[in-house]
Each structure stands twice: as C-alpha cells, then as structure tokens.
Write a structure and sequence with these properties.
CATH topology: TIM Barrel
Number of helices: 11
Number of strands: 13
Low-confidence stretches: none
CATH class: Alpha Beta
Strand order of the largest sheet: 2-3-4-5-6-7-8-9
Order of helices and strands: EEHEHEHEHEHEHEHHEHHHEEEE
Shape: globular
CATH architecture: Alpha-Beta Barrel
Bound molecules: (4S)-2,6-dioxohexahydropyrimidine-4-carboxylic acid, zinc ion
Number of domains: 1
Strand content: 15-25%
C-alpha cells in the first residue's frame, strides 16, 4: 500500500507550552490533527476553568489562519482542587478531563498530588460528572527503580482506584509496559490507554545508541523490547481501549542537552507519519484509523472528525533543528528519513 486515507486524527495527549513557543508547536499539530487534549503542566499550572479558558484563547491565537483545530482543555489535579472546580469543569464546553501528576514525577509536577487517597472526594465528583481522569501512572519513591515505576503504580494504585470508582473514566496515559497493557486489556469499566509513537518505535537501547541520547529521554522512560512489542500489539489490535496520544513535549535544545536534561520528545512535526510507519511495519495500516481517529473520540463521547487526511509513501527528510522564537528544538527523527508524507 502506497497511499492511505483516514479520517482526520486527534492527539489525545499533547504538550503545547505557552508564550512564543505556541507559534511553533501549535501549527505543527494543527496541520494534521483535528483536536488535541492539551496537558495543563504549565508554570503555574492550569488549575481552574478560568485558567483553561485563558490558555485556550492563547492557543487559538497561535493557530494558522483558516485552521479549525480545537484544543480540548484539561485541569491539573492538585491537593487543593475542589469538588466545585470539578462541577465547573464538567459544565464548561471546553474542559474535557483532569490530569493527575504524582508530585515530582515529571516536568512541572511539583504542584501534583502527594497522596492519591487525599483527592478521592474530587475523583468521586469526576465519576459523578463523567469527567475522565488522565493518569501519569508512575510512583515517585526514590527506592523504586525508574524503569519499574509504572508497573509499581499499577500494582499499588490502579486496581484500588478502579474498584473504588467503578464508573470513573480513566486513561492510563503514555502506557509503556506490558503490565499496563495487561491491566487495561482486562479491567472492567471505562478504562483506556494512550500510546506514544516513540514508545512504539524504540526500546531503551535508543537512550544509549553510540552515546547518551538526550532527545530520547522522556517520562515514563522507554522500556525493554518485550514491552515495546506489547505496545505495538495493543495499538495495532483495533481494540477501542487504545488510542493515539503523542505526549509530544518540546523543550529547548539547551534544556535537553544539559547535565540535568529535561524529559520530553518533540514528535508533533511528523507524528501521524511515524505512527503510519509503525503500523505498516506491524502489517496493520488498515487499523491506523481506529487507533488515530475513532477510538479516542468514542471514549471521550465525541464524534469523529468529518474530514480526512491522506498519507503517501514519499520519503522526506526531517530537519535537524527547528526554530521556535529565540530557541531551537530538536524534533524526533531529526535529520533522518521519514517514509510517509501527508499529501492533501
Ligand atoms: O517526557 C515527558 N515530558 N513526560 C511527561 O510526563 C511530561 C512531559 C513534559 O511536559 O515535558
Ligand atoms: Zn505528557
């Protein structure tokens, strides 16, 4: 197959940042994706409906002329989030979920939750209002190996959360392990997982290929090959519990190439093309549309996009670096060949 036409995809997990950076990263996503769940880990975080409304306006202002890209906003769950904040979010037209970060787990997570049980009343309100809980599913304990933190989160918290709130819509974001897939595959109730393209493409060797590779450093970390394979099987299965979430997370080059580099892979500029590459390698291009364009809206209770995009097998070269205002960002697959290209 040299061409594929699919309904316009959506990105169910995206970091757009703020300020001048928006002018670079919003168009990169808006070119191919109809909508995106926008992560709230700004500094300070997006805590309230009013914060989300203001942030949404800044994103819309950075959209290219004529684009009808729709940012789907999220609130950042803190230990001071109230039941009323949840009610307001559920009543708003544009807040679609609440994001849980364990305090200290990742970029701008210091305002996150220290003890999950403390926010149970707020989670109960989310269950009542049908507002999904998006989880950064990792524990942060320093005595737990960094490669095991997702599996330990699942073991310690996920089943308890699910059985306490059986009606709660939950998304295990950026699933990276076979443990995550095992859980999501068989748990009763409205549970799903997003899967990034870099976790589908790479195993953890990619962090050390010929030297230290800071542009492959993200959280949760990329895992062993057997985990990557489990993610590919899940993503390409057509199962509606799995959908596309890039976790595209731009950082300036100097912040990545540093003695204490930031976590995040900037995949937005070729995300849908790279997912196509992964699906093709798995012999499952015919299931790309379910994963990229249908399963996500179904979970969120939204209609799929009406229009379509077309991808063609015409290799092109990804830039080595992209300019964003005064900064430089190194995209995923910088300087290398991308097999598929958006053509229409
Ligand atoms: O690698 C990551 N980068 N993982 C996250 O959870 C956050 C993200 C970011 O915001 O940079
Ligand atoms: Zn993220």
């Amino acid at each position: 197959m040299n061409r594929i036409r699919i309904r316009r995809p959506d990105d169910w997990h995206l970091h757009l940042r703020d300020g001048a950076m928006l002018n670079t990263v919003v168009p990169a996503t808006a070119r191919n994706f109809g909508r995106a769940i926008v992560m709230p880990n700004l500094k300070p975080p997006v805590r309230t409906v009013a914060d989300a409304a203001a942030y949404r306006e800044r994103i819309l202002a950075a959209c290219p002329a004529g684009s009808d890209f729709e940012p789907l906003m999220t609130l950042y769950l803190t230990e001071t989030t109230s039941v009323d904040d949840i009610r307001q979010a559920a009543e708003s037209e544009f807040v679609h979920a609440v994001k849980y970060y364990p305090a200290g787990a990742t970029t701008n997570s210091d305002s996150g939750v220290r003890e999950l049980e403390r926010v149970y009343p707020v989670i109960e309100a989310m269950e009542k209002h049908g507002l999904p809980l998006l989880m950064h599913g990792e524990v942060t304990d320093s005595d737990i190996d960094v490669f095991d933190r997702e599996a330990v989160f699942i073991e310690r918290h996920l089943e308890k959360l699910r059985s306490t709130f059986p009606g709660l819509k939950m998304v295990l974001e950026h699933a990276t392990t076979s443990d995550a897939i095992d859980f999501v595959q068989s748990a009763p109730g409205p549970i799903a997982a997003t899967i990034t393209v870099h976790h589908l493409m790479f195993n953890r060797n990619a962090l050390f290929e010929g030297g230290l590779r800071p542009h492959h450093y993200c959280l949760p970390l990329i895992k062993r090959e057997r985990h990557r394979q489990a993610l590919v099987v899940a993503a390409t299965s057509g199962n509606e519990r799995y959908f596309l979430g890039t976790d595209s997370a731009p950082h300036p080059k100097h912040a990545k190439e540093s003695d204490c580099g930031c976590a995040g892979v900037y995949s937005a500029p070729a995300a849908i093309e790279l997912y196509a590459e992964v699906f093709e390698a798995a012999g499952a291009l015919d299931r790309l549309e379910a994963f990229a364009s249908l399963n996500g809206p179904a979970f969120y209770g939204l209609a799929p996009n009406e229009d379509t995009i077309e991808l063609e097998r015409t290799p092109w070269q990804m830039e080595r670096e992209l300019t964003a205002d005064d900064d430089t960002i190194v995209p995923l697959r910088a300087g290398s060949e991308i097999v598929w290209r958006r053509v229409d």
